């Protein structure tokens, strides 16, 4: 990242300092926000995804020990460890400087500063961040897997360990948690990375398609077989075969798969010779390992074969601040894709994001933000810009305090909003109520 693409927050209780720094930085960086109250830091950080915070050490002139600066420094680093904090103080004190650096400050400047010095300090941090890359797993190729949470860091550690081995991997996790991304990342970081990565959604294949798709066929093997066709096992030879939705295949399909995996050979339909195959197998499913262990549903011997190592991808709700980081990532991504400017998030927008259940996990978040960017008329995203797809919502049943009529109304509203791509005005019109009445109902039903 370059200085002109960076976002900077300046916090100082001296309005003159804020004005001076705003004037200095305005033309040099992408966004500069100034504020005189440190209590606003954490909220502002959630709204803007700053790269650097320039923070005063002493507020209100009450205590000059620098403790307050260090207190806020710790809060910032706890919420967003990747953000660099540059501390400034009017009371140059080498002990304090050393202490703040030990506590995680990136740099330390003494007031009155020279403009060039503060610019150099910020530039240096931005360049360092660029070298370290964005907040994502550092992997080969262009796989971007965002995740700072402990739960995702555990996934990344495991991924780096297993990727270079040839072990068969079973990836578990709810819909939309990123299983596909992880499978691709394992391949991209394996010794097979220059060979094919072939994905098959086996859960969607009928009994007849299952065999022809996976094992291939010879011309004339069945009525529609007008020419020879390679199966996906053969196409993945030397590389990785990724079987998605493995938990949904029938017992018969499981038996066929097991034979191939045991013999490491496939016989295309209509062929009389088998072909040796050398693949690394990755499977994924949203069925829990407990349900998979039910022998009426899934063969134990097949589980053992596909599951040398299993990895569970946590749902979004267990990833703490990852949600905000992902939100900023998707907002920047779609703003660029749709040629829009920079967006900031209002407190109500963030609150609505945080309150939502996200049963569709990262995919649901991604689609909701893409919709918000497409529909937004202004740079500040407000709660009403955020609408959730009815597809991801569990069908609403009347709760204890709710009548069936309430549940019916709630479902109707969700369906109409979805149909109108989140457009509140159109939805209100279709429902035959005013915009304000629709907002009242959205609020009432916590939508
Ligand atoms: N950590 C992440 N960082 C960035 N993007 C992500 C992350 N996790 C998921 N995504 C994005 O969310 C979407 C859904 O991810 P993906 O298809 O990998 O999920 P999945 O678990 O395989 O879903 P399903 O269970 O429906 O097959 C994709 O567009 C993916 O790029």
From TrEMBL:
The modification 4-aspartylphosphate is found at residue 56. PROSITE patterns: RESPONSE_REGULATORY, SIGMA54_INTERACT_2, SIGMA54_INTERACT_4. Residues 145-374 form the Sigma-54 factor interaction domain. Pfam families: AAA_lid_14, HTH_8, Response_reg, Sigma54_activat. InterPro entries: AAA+_ATPase, AAA_lid_NorR, CheY-like_superfamily, Homeodomain-like_sf, HTH_Fis, P-loop_NTPase, Sig_transdc_resp-reg_receiver, Sigma_54_int. One of its GO terms (biological process) is phosphorelay signal transduction system. Keywords: ATP-binding, Nucleotide-binding, Phosphoprotein, Transcription, Transcription regulation. CDD domains: AAA. One of its GO terms (molecular function) is ATP binding. Residues 7-126 form the Response regulatory domain. It comes from the Bacteria. This is Sigma-54-dependent Fis family transcriptional regulator. It comes from Subsaximicrobium wynnwilliamsii. The lineage of its organism: Bacteria, Pseudomonadati, Bacteroidota, Flavobacteriia, Flavobacteriales.
């Amino acid at each position: 990242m370059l200085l002109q693409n960076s976002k900077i927050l300046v916090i100082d209780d001296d309005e003159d300092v804020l004005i001076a720094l705003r004037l200095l930085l305005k033309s040099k960086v992408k966004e500069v926000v100034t504020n005189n109250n440190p209590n606003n830091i954490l909220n502002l950080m959630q709204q803007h995804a700053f790269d650097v915070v320039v923070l005063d050490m002493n507020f209100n002139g009450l205590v000059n020990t620098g403790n307050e600066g260090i207190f806020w420094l710790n809060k910032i680093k706890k919420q967003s460890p990747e953000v660099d904090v540059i501390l400034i103080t009017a009371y140059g004190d080498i002990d304090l400087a050393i202490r703040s650096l030990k506590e995680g400050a990136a740099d330390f400047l003494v007031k009155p500063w020279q403009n060039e010095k503060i610019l150099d300090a910020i530039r240096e941090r931005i360049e360092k961040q660029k070298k370290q890359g964005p907040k994502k797993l550092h992997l080969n190729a262009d796989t971007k897997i965002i995740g700072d949470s402990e739960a995702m860091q555990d996934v990344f550690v495991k991924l780096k360990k297993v990727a270079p081995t040839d072990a068969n991997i079973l990836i578990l996790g709810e819909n939309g948690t990123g299983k596909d991304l992880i499978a691709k990342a394992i391949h991209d970081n394996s010794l097979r990375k220059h060979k094919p990565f072939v994905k098959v959604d086996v859960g969607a294949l009928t009994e007849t398609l299952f065999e022809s798709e996976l094992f291939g066929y010879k011309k004339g093997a069945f009525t529609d077989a007008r020419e020879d066709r390679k199966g996906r096992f053969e196409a993945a030879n030397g590389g990785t075969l990724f079987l998605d939705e493995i938990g949904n295949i029938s017992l018969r399909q499981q038996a066929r798969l097991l034979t191939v995996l045991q013999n490491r050979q496939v016989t295309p339909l209509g062929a009389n010779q088998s072909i040796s195959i050398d693949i690394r197998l990755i499977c994924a499913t949203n069925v829990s390992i407990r349900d998979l262990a039910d022998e009426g549903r899934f063969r134990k011997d097949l589980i053992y074969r596909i599951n040398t190592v299993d990895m569970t991808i946590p749902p979004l709700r267990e990833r703490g601040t990852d949600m905000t980081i992902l939100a900023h990532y998707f907002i920047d991504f779609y703003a660029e894709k749709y040629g829009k400017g920079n967006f900031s998030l209002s407190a109500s927008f963030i609150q609505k994001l945080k309150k939502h259940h996200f049963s569709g996990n990262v995919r649901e978040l991604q689609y909701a933000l893409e919709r918000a960017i497409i529909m937004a008329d202004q740079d500040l995203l407000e709660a009403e810009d955020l609408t959730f797809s009815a597809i991801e919502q569990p069908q609403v049943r009347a709760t204890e305090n709710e009548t069936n009529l309430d549940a019916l109304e709630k479902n109707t509203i969700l369906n109409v909003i979805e149909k109108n791509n989140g457009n509140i005005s159109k939805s209100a019109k279709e429902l035959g109520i005013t915009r304000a009445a629709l907002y009242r109902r959205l609020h009432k039903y916590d939508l």
